[in-house]
Write a structure and sequence with these properties.
The structure is a homodimer of 397-residue chains. With 397 residues, chain A is α/β, with parallel strands linked by helices. Chain A has 13 helices and 15 strands. In chain A, the strands form four sheets. In chain A, strands 4-10-9-8-7-5-6 form a seven-stranded mixed sheet, with helices on both faces. A four-stranded antiparallel sheet of chain A has the order 11-12-15-14, covered by helices on one side. A two-stranded antiparallel sheet of chain A has the order 1-3. In chain A, a hairpin with a 3-residue loop joins strand 14 and strand 15. Chain A is globular, with a radius of gyration of 22 Å. Chain A starts with 10 loop residues before the first strand and ends in a 6-residue tail after the last helix. In chain A, 59% of the residues are buried. Chains A and B meet through helix 1, helix 2, helix 4, helix 5 and helix 9 of A and helix 1, helix 2, helix 4, helix 5 and helix 9 of B.
């Protein structure tokens, strides 16, 4: 196996910091600075409005979408970028509900990121057509997919515990029950091998500022299974999803391809940062990435359990059921994470007691893992979390 | 009157170019380059996830919203940034329809930007509650505001002709008829004095990449009249509109203020460019800006009519009924605009025959106007538009 990982030299990582929060916001790829400066000066500054043509801004959402597609097993022309993940959830879910007008249940699980649940709740309330958002425990998803379910809306990797659903099995179950399958890949894209086309799911959505290192607020993506796209009537029917946006027709006619999932003017500067950030993935073998990720996560679990017995594993022990993050429960987790961050080991905290650590083989190696645990053990053993400065309420990043 | 305009030194304008397309995409403010580089390196690069707290990313949408608010007469805390204008139209229109459940008409006019009409069409179709999008001629809007109208959704300045609606009069008419008033300020914000609070309108939305120079794809804004915001149940109920986003509750509870109109994670890089771009407005007196804008537009009309008799004014001659742009109809407008752009006078073209020119007193002066018309006259007189290279079909920026 050719070892191409890690690729630390591609990232600007602060000296001395061990960054285990790439599952929340990826670090800065070195290539971003120069490229973004050039987009600002040589494209916007020099070409102004002509940039839409000369610099390929108009096609950027599909061009970048194809780059994402290669990481999630989506064929060219089936992924488009834009907006935020919440908006993409709304687009996919509203389209999915229209595909099953006789069914009234949106199935999700309590491990889904709250915004997905909120968007479903808002959509259902707003439609006022008697839909129900049914939320079950992650372990109960398969059993809960009945012929009442219009759309199964599931996040593959649980943001809190790292628990990973079996995408193929659940998609097959959904289809056997006649339901539409919508996957949220927020914690999957760039974290684990994904094959959306192979799974046969109708929709997949995700964000790009986590494992894909696109920067704070990088745009989201949406995949629509190619055989379905022509039948979708977008709820968010913006001009850039029109078949001929610059004809300025009075009535909406959706584009004939994935571009109908575009809405408004794309964020060119933000997307340019993402576009160049994705070059860090050139030549990465996802199977190798996964193997390294599993090794790092397993090592972290073994080290923490050996050195910090007060912490209780909140993630699946079986790597095959886990994404690229590991979480531990600790009663004083909030303050402990503050203390850890103060010592330049960056993880994050999710209420009520979860200390969360992401492992990203592009820039994390085994030495980082060992050093992180050594510092964590100091924080726990020396009760550094009991210091007043770490106990004050507030959000831990 | 203290003369503070133009402020050309604040912008990077290409040498020799006369840029009359700031109504489509504003030029690069010099301050953007350094600031964006610092956001990338010193915020994202150095602080990573901590940037959400340390660098004020989380509050940026309201902080920037307040800056926009000062330009459109909105009180502090009543404007928030995010997404695209099309999404903001959807949010405002869906909320407006819920405020008048017994009424079924969305009134707009044929001068509205198509995306607003498309978003209304998609919303109406998706809701399936028998709403009607009624589109009248711009001159007929006031008369068409009847007690059937749930929401009057009007763009103040017509993107094609520059024709400007009387915001106070139409809002008053809407309210007298019991309708909700939604203004699109895409071609107003930074172009003409606006007083949303004074008008009493319920909603206003707009974009920031035109007269506000926020860069390609800069985020949109939404204003909600402060007394109404607590009653709105957002259709797009994303986690950052939640009252306590970091509590990760399973159910949605909207924020108690304008933040309930937030949806997903904001585009920090893109919004940082906008934030610093808005400094060009510090100390600008909108009455002075308007006076200069009128002078430039009147001069342009007089010069074109004197030197290019083949062109027919498509904008109102009366400045009080015109925004900060002037349009002329010309049978060969498409090719003529191509020829003009090739000579570094940048306007744009809108089908079927409109040549459109924006006048932005921050960086355009009378000498620019005279020189632009001299070059336009050459293009027309010498039939440069008849050259094959300008006649090929395609989009003119």
């Amino acid at each position: 196996m050719s070892t191409t990982l890690p690729r630390k030299d591609l990232f600007d990582l602060p000296e001395g910091m061990i960054y285990l929060d790439g599952n929340s916001l990826g670090p800065l790829p070195k290539a971003v600075k120069g490229h973004l400066a050039s987009v600002v000066t040589d494209q916007w500054g020099a070409n102004l409005i002509k940039g839409w043509n000369l610099d390929g801004w108009m096609e950027q959402p599909t061009r970048v979408g194809d780059r994402i597609g290669r990481l999630i097993g989506a064929p060219a022309g089936s992924v488009v970028m834009g907006d935020t993940l919440s908006i993409k959830v709304y687009q996919a879910l509203s389209a999915g509900l229209e595909m099953r007008p006789e069914r009234k249940v949106v199935l999700s699980d309590s491990g889904n990121f709250p915004s997905d649940l909120y968007m479903a709740e808002g959509l259902i309330r707003h439609l006022g057509k008697g839909h129900e958002l049914r939320i079950v425990a992650p372990e109960e998803v398969e059993a809960a997919i009945t012929d009442e379910v219009a759309v199964a809306m599931i996040t593959q990797v649980d943001y809190r515990t790292g628990r990973m659903h079996d995408m193929d099995a659940i998609t097959a179950k959904a289809h056997a029950a006649g339901a539409v399958m919508l996957w949220d890949l927020a914690h999957s894209a760039g974290a684990v091998p994904v094959d959306v086309a192979g799974s046969g799911c109708e929709f997949a959505v995700g964000c790009t500022y986590k494992y894909l290192n696109g920067g704070p607020g990088a745009p989201a993506f949406i995949y629509v299974r190619p055989d379905l796209v022509a039948a979708i009537e977008p709820a968010l029917s913006g001009w850039l999803g029109h078949d001929a946006p610059f004809a300025f027709e009075q009535g909406y006619r959706p584009a004939r391809n994935i571009e109908r999932m575009r809405v408004g003017t794309p964020p060119v500067l933000q997307m340019s940062a993402l576009e160049v950030a994705l070059e860090a993935w050139d030549g990465v073998d996802m199977a190798e990435l996964r193997a390294v990720s599993v090794r790092l996560c397993d090592l972290f679990i073994a080290e923490v359990e050996a050195k910090c017995p007060a912490l209780e594993l909140a993630s699946p022990r079986d790597a095959s059921q886990r994404g690229s993050q590991v979480s531990f429960r600790f009663e004083h987790g909030y303050a402990a994470m503050q203390a850890l961050i103060a010592r330049d080991v960056i993880g994050d905290f999710r209420a009520p007691d979860v200390m969360r650590f992401g492992f990203t083989p592009l820039y994390i190696d085994e030495a980082d893992v060992r050093r992180a645990v050594a510092i964590l053990a100091e924080v726990i053993d020396q009760r550094l979390w009991d210091r007043p400065e770490y106990r004050k309420a507030g959000r831990v990043t």
